[in-house]
What we know:
This protein has 14 helices and 2 strands. The chain is mainly α. A two-stranded antiparallel ribbon has the order 1-2.
Amino acid sequence: MEFFLVSLLNGISYGLLLFMLTSGLTIVFSLMGVLNFAHASFYMLGAYFAYQTSRWLGFWPALVIAPVLVGAAGMAVERFGLRTAHRFGHVAELLFTFGLAYLIEEAVHLIWGRSSLDYRVPPDLDGTLFTIYGTAYPVFRGFMLLVALAMLVSIWLTLTRTRVGLVIQASLTHPQTVEALGHNVPRVFTLVFGGGAALAGLAGVIGGAAFVTEPGMAATVGPMVFVIVVVGGMGSLGGAFIASLAIGIIQTFSVALDYSFADLLARVGFMHAPGGVLGEFMKLTIAQAAPVIPYLLMVLMLIFRPKGLMGTRAD
């Protein structure tokens, strides 16, 4: 029971961190149709900006300043780069954001170097929130849960209950009408892209302190972001939330399970013949196969339900 509860809570906290990272990409795609390959790079920038800001002002100011800086960088990218590429179609957008990811990574190398940084959980959040059968649950993981849920509620309220959210949604489906009403649609898209980058930056502030801040962090989580977007449904914020939780829990349990596939089959009364390729495969443990499981889930989703769990967009 202890293993189950601790792994479940860790999986939920990891899944919510993935949602914090994925939500920005989901919003940008659903409102602009742009699949941003550099989204995980904004996550990395959030961690690095938070590290630098926390050295000067502390963690709490960094929690606000870093996402704002990343959001401003995202707005500049959309205004002076992506907007031009957008005129030439989706291929140009993908190539632009793909190249941008490399530029951001090289900029990080030049400024902060190639080694990991000493960006840690702040003392205020470095403690035990509660214990489960003697196992301590960190305060910072509880803080991650709180921030992710607050962000989810804020996004939903902004898009569905405010004038700004209505203008944003109308700009997607009826841009000419929105412009006729006096709104600047290109500026709306700039703000949306900047907001998506800021959400990734916020995830970087939290994830960089919880795990590790180093130049390869974007490449580590970047593929997982697109897995979640595909499984949840392209452009579906609710689908991204469900997929993030599911993948976070699956990954956490998979890493912690040291059973081989042969052990699992033996428990249900099936014995396999040793030797050969199948025999070697059966020796693999679930923990060893854990990195592949999300991608297997994505492939199965594309085969049997290409739109994802809650997706509506076919493009």
